[in-house]
Specification:
Blueprint lengths: L1 H16 L7 E5 L2 E5 L6 E7 L2 E7 L6 E5 L1 H4 L6 E8 L7 E11 L5 E6 L2 H8 L4 E6 L2 E7 L4 H17 L1
Antiparallel strand pairs: 1-2, 2-3, 3-4, 4-5, 5-8, 6-7, 6-9, 7-8, 9-10
């Protein structure tokens, strides 16, 4: 699993480094960005909220990964495997809480990223309905992010799943 995540992580970094003239396509959906790097690198959706970032990835190595960046994650040791208590906030207080394995990786010179492998079909169908997520590890809040739940987000999720089907 560690090797699988590391390989997916390297592909994600390569998506971010693709020059504009390469065979990738970038589209904006409101505050969301979708990069379609083709079958060699896959699809990366990104949302930024202050210093926090949410990434949704699907590609040739990993069919699904959530990745997060925050000030707290930047302070973590790279290559650290950590149990993360992930909370998905649901209206009415019936929050979904699960402890999931996650991996911290260095992300260039400016920080770290926390990655969680996930089943994409289950996650993307819930993001519009329950857009707020938070995570803690070892008593430290790693992130608390609320994704937009609007028409732009619906269009992004549809385009992301289309990108995934086309490239896998």
């Amino acid at each position: 699993m560690r090797k699988l995540f590391l390989t997916a992580y390297v592909l994600i970094l390569s998506l971010a480094a693709i020059p504009a003239h390469a065979q990738s396509e970038t589209k904006w959906f409101g505050s969301w960005q979708l990069v379609d790097g083709g079958p060699d690198t896959g699809c990366l959706a990104t949302f930024r909220q202050g210093t926090e970032q949410f990434h949704l990835y699907a590609g040739p190595i990993s069919d699904g990964a959530l990745m997060f960046r925050s000030d707290a994650i930047t302070q973590m040791d790279p290559a650290e495997d950590v149990p993360v208590e992930l909370t998905w906030f649901v209206e009415g207080g019936q929050n979904a809480v699960a402890t999931v394995p996650a991996t911290v990786r260095a992300l260039g010179a400016d920080g770290r990223v926390l990655g969680i492998n996930i089943p994409l079909d289950q996650v993307t169908s819930k993001l519009l309905v329950h857009p707020r997520m938070a995570a803690r590890s070892g008593g430290v809040t790693l992130f608390d992010i609320t994704l937009p739940a609007d028409q732009n987000s619906a269009a992004l999720y549809a385009a992301f799943l289309e990108c995934r089907s086309r490239n896998l």
